[in-house]
């Protein structure tokens, strides 16, 4: 049975002793966890705290910002700049690299994050999350350009997310399996509740925004058609569907009970390369999914091998149970 007495920081210290991980990474992850606790707290009172709704502003993605997109971004910056181990921060909500203020020491780590994922769900009180990805560079980066942070996902040293659902959870991998922690409000600490999460190779559940079917490419249309045909179709079984429109909640479900999550490229997103962002969504989730024994693909290759050209670059995302992802890749190969 999982030892629920272990707090997040105890887990990190234990990993450090067992695996000889870097002390600076422990410091950074502790800061990230503190940011997630603060965001969880900001979300908790919803309309009572006047934190819902949109702002006038648009982010670099061309999306109207929610108040909480900006609040969560600020929380990440303020909690993590203090760590003394970061050389830069890069966020979905910022059009520039965040330079660490001169009053703090700098380090070789770079934190890339989606401060609030699923923000369209905020005003209807549905689960949202935060996603983070961590790189370790050879030197403290020059923040005048993105050049040094344009690294492929295979170079991530850690990644994870916080899920603000009925309970708040933190799910993390430092490259040695995937582990889940639940926020214990009584002591204000995350506690280990899910050690060594693994995804079953097969599944009977898929997640996709079905309203976009008309714009999908033929391989995705084929896969989903065969899923919904159920027992009468070539799959010969009923396959259930879910769509929450919060990637964190979706990926969490896949990690907990298997399944496949897709936001494929389609006619409407072709000019941008897809819907989801490589740095803030696709790479960190791909790292976790692969660490849990699943697969994460664009349909035509491994997400973590995509060579980034732009920090806000988007990619097609197909991830989850590895046999399902392999089948969808096969349909792409047969079509191309
Ligand atoms: P964000 O709120 O960070 O901009 O990301 C939202 C993403 C992702 O969470 C979700 O999978 C997807 O957008 C939902 O898209 P649809 O609105 O097309 O369902
Ligand atoms: Mn957004
Ligand atoms: Mn997002
Ligand atoms: Mn977001």
From TrEMBL:
<protein>
    <recommendedName>
        <fullName>Fructose-1,6-bisphosphatase class 1</fullName>
        <ecNumber>3.1.3.11</ecNumber>
    </recommendedName>
</protein>
<feature type="domain" description="Fructose-1-6-bisphosphatase class 1 C-terminal">
    <location>
        <begin position="199"/>
        <end position="332"/>
    </location>
</feature>
<feature type="binding site">
    <location>
        <position position="117"/>
    </location>
    <ligand>
        <name>Mg(2+) 2</name>
    </ligand>
</feature>
<dbReference type="GO" id="GO:0006094">
    <property type="term" value="P:gluconeogenesis"/>
</dbReference>
<feature type="binding site">
    <location>
        <begin position="117"/>
        <end position="120"/>
    </location>
    <ligand>
        <name>substrate</name>
    </ligand>
</feature>
<feature type="domain" description="Fructose-1-6-bisphosphatase class I N-terminal">
    <location>
        <begin position="7"/>
        <end position="194"/>
    </location>
</feature>
<comment type="similarity">
    <text>Belongs to the FBPase class 1 family.</text>
</comment>
<dbReference type="GO" id="GO:0030388">
    <property type="term" value="P:fructose 1,6-bisphosphate metabolic process"/>
</dbReference>
<feature type="binding site">
    <location>
        <position position="209"/>
    </location>
    <ligand>
        <name>substrate</name>
    </ligand>
</feature>
<feature type="binding site">
    <location>
        <position position="92"/>
    </location>
    <ligand>
        <name>Mg(2+) 1</name>
    </ligand>
</feature>
<dbReference type="Pfam" id="PF00316">
    <property type="entry name" value="FBPase"/>
</dbReference>
<keyword id="KW-0479">Metal-binding</keyword>
<keyword id="KW-0378">Hydrolase</keyword>
<keyword id="KW-0460">Magnesium</keyword>
<keyword id="KW-0963">Cytoplasm</keyword>
<comment type="pathway">
    <text>Carbohydrate biosynthesis.</text>
</comment>
<dbReference type="GO" id="GO:0006002">
    <property type="term" value="P:fructose 6-phosphate metabolic process"/>
</dbReference>
<dbReference type="GO" id="GO:0000287">
    <property type="term" value="F:magnesium ion binding"/>
</dbReference>
<dbReference type="GO" id="GO:0005986">
    <property type="term" value="P:sucrose biosynthetic process"/>
</dbReference>
<dbReference type="InterPro" id="IPR044015">
    <property type="entry name" value="FBPase_C_dom"/>
</dbReference>
<feature type="binding site">
    <location>
        <position position="281"/>
    </location>
    <ligand>
        <name>Mg(2+) 2</name>
    </ligand>
</feature>
<dbReference type="GO" id="GO:0005829">
    <property type="term" value="C:cytosol"/>
</dbReference>
<dbReference type="GO" id="GO:0042132">
    <property type="term" value="F:fructose 1,6-bisphosphate 1-phosphatase activity"/>
</dbReference>
<feature type="binding site">
    <location>
        <position position="114"/>
    </location>
    <ligand>
        <name>Mg(2+) 2</name>
    </ligand>
</feature>
<dbReference type="InterPro" id="IPR000146">
    <property type="entry name" value="FBPase_class-1"/>
</dbReference>
<feature type="binding site">
    <location>
        <position position="114"/>
    </location>
    <ligand>
        <name>Mg(2+) 1</name>
    </ligand>
</feature>
<comment type="subunit">
    <text>Homotetramer.</text>
</comment>
<dbReference type="InterPro" id="IPR033391">
    <property type="entry name" value="FBPase_N"/>
</dbReference>
<feature type="binding site">
    <location>
        <position position="116"/>
    </location>
    <ligand>
        <name>Mg(2+) 1</name>
    </ligand>
</feature>
<keyword id="KW-0119">Carbohydrate metabolism</keyword>
<dbReference type="InterPro" id="IPR028343">
    <property type="entry name" value="FBPtase"/>
</dbReference>
<dbReference type="GO" id="GO:0006000">
    <property type="term" value="P:fructose metabolic process"/>
</dbReference>
<dbReference type="Pfam" id="PF18913">
    <property type="entry name" value="FBPase_C"/>
</dbReference>
